[in-house]
Design brief:
It is built from five helices and seven strands; from the N terminus they run H-H-H-H-H-E-E-E-E-E-E-E. It has 194 residues and is an alpha+beta fold. The chain has two domains: 71 residues, lambda repressor-like DNA-binding domains (434 Repressor (Amino-terminal Domain)), CATH 1.10.260.40; 85 residues, Umud Fragment, subunit A. Strands 1-2-7-3-4-5-6 form a seven-stranded antiparallel sheet, with no helix packed on it. A hairpin with a 4-residue loop joins strand 3 and strand 4. The termini are far apart. 25% of the residues are buried.
């Protein structure tokens, strides 16, 4: 079986790409991770064994990961100039393959001031709630009204134009709230004694 021999021009282009990467101080794995690519995938471009290295969109993507330009790559191939790669330049950025974890959860607090939710939450209990997390049936919620009023309740159900909740004056008393007057509803995720 004949062995694959890359075109000499593709080899020069791959070598110039490798030179740009080394000047940036990156390994093949680090450069590839900026594009969600493996080090082997990046290495195939540098060795001239991956097709497409002459395509402008591929060159922009690869040189962008190195905070460089296709023009800098062309200058290296031609030998006309040795371009300076600015580490502070803004190029293509990627999160790479690392996992940053979930975004931080915003939690707000509200102290119960009356016995409207008794025995579920006595006066003095602090409700922790997560804004815009929709509550399940029977779960505590904090309803932020458009007038700025905060109403801790137990969520029952929702209809197109109304919320059905419990806890006004007594836990078994139902209340219907017009959704037009509600700014936000948030699920209670914890109750703490103060």
């Amino acid at each position: 079986m004949p062995r694959f021999v890359p075109d000499p021009e593709v080899l020069r282009l791959g070598e110039a790409l490798a030179a740009l990467r080394r000047r940036r101080g990156l390994s093949q794995a680090e450069a590839g991770a900026r594009l969600d690519m493996t080090s082997q995938g990046w290495g195939l471009y540098e060795s001239g064994r991956r097709p497409g290295l002459f395509r402008p969109d591929v060159q922009r993507r690869l040189t962008g990961a190195l905070d460089a330009t296709p023009e800098a790559l062309a200058l290296l191939v031609s030998g006309a100039q040795t371009p300076h790669v600015d580490p502070a330049a803004t190029g293509l950025e990627s999160r790479g393959r690392g996992f940053d974890g979930p975004p931080p959860v915003v939690v707000k607090h509200l102290k119960v001031r009356d016995d409207a939710l008794s025995p579920w939450a006595e006066p003095g209990v602090i409700l922790e709630y997560q804004p815009d997390l929709w509550p399940r049936g029977g779960q505590g919620c904090v309803i932020e009204m458009k007038d700025g009023d905060l109403r801790p309740r137990l969520f029952d159900r929702s209809e197109d134009d109304r919320l059905h909740v419990r806890g006004v004056g007594a836990l078994d008393r139902a209340e219907v709230i017009d959704r037009q007057s509600v700014a936000r509803i948030s699920a209670v995720i914890a109750r703490r004694e103060s």
